[in-house]
Amino acid sequence: MADLSTGESLYCMEKGEMDPFVDMILNVSPFIGLLQLFNRLPLTRLLYKMVSSQKGLKTWLETVDIVAQKAEKREKMGNDRPDFMTMIWAENDDRESWTRDKIINFAQLLFFAGSETSATTLSVVMFHLLTTPHAYKRLTEELRTIESDEEITISRLATMEYLTACIDEGMRMRPVVAAVIPRVGPRGGGMVDGHYIPEGTTVGVPQWATHHMDSNFFEANSYLPERWLKSSANDPRFAADQKGACQPFAKGPRNCLGKGFAYGMMRMFLSKLIWHFDIELKPEDRDWDVKPSFTSVVFWAKPKMHVKLTPVQR
């Protein structure tokens, strides 16, 4: 994500360790939650001064500054790199309209919304696959119909229905944005499910609760990728499923702009991993999804998950 948004990789894989900047991004999540409170509840703005010297605010400001520096460096590289900035500028006739602040804001959006979110979903999907043998077996069989690594492409993976179903079910089990995604009542107010919403009122749907309601999903607390297959329309288990209740990328014109990219990245990661390796979850992490360290304010702070990888012999 760093390379695609600012033209500079963090080289975590090459170094074999987490870059300090990634840790900073993870550490500011609780403070982002506080910022939401400050914006919505006027009285809590008084608390802003009280926490202004605390670690959360300092880390947030440092992180924003680092992203700004990286974005400015990317701007000087021109339009020849195969990344997000080049694609955006190619679609905009007026290159000059992209001011310094606009470039920085866009880079910040990519960093904060497009990195840890996908990483969390991939961890959740992998955990549930490794604790749901039938799902892991079926996905492995689907992916290993691919004959060579070179054939693992974004376009090929998009046709693999069970792969996408596994990702969708993972996002249902643990929606990556733990906070309520806000929407504002329209001019003149409006009706939602028979309830009047006054103009300017902030409302939202708690995704976790919605995704885990038995009235919305059959065995809502079970990982069942089959519910997302086209054939599920003929499966009596899922006949009453309200699939529209699961909107991990939000809904409407303000939904996640990186949805397509996220699907492509997650499909590629899972496919490469499962095509090349047999995977086992270490016994000490069988309860990974309910460990006390799995906490959240806006995004999930997930505990480490340990697996054993065995190269596939071909």
TrEMBL record:
Pfam families: p450 (PF00067). InterPro entries: Cyt_P450, Cyt_P450_E_grp-I, Cyt_P450_sf, Cytochrome_P450_monoxygenase. The keyword Iron applies. Keywords: Heme, Iron, Metal-binding. Heme binds at C256. It comes from the Eukaryota. Its cofactor is heme. GO terms for molecular function: heme binding; iron ion binding; monooxygenase activity; oxidoreductase activity, acting on paired donors, with incorporation or reduction of molecular oxygen. Transmembrane segments: none annotated. Belongs to the cytochrome P450 family. This is Cytochrome P450. It comes from Colletotrichum noveboracense. The lineage of its organism: Eukaryota, Fungi, Dikarya, Ascomycota, Pezizomycotina.
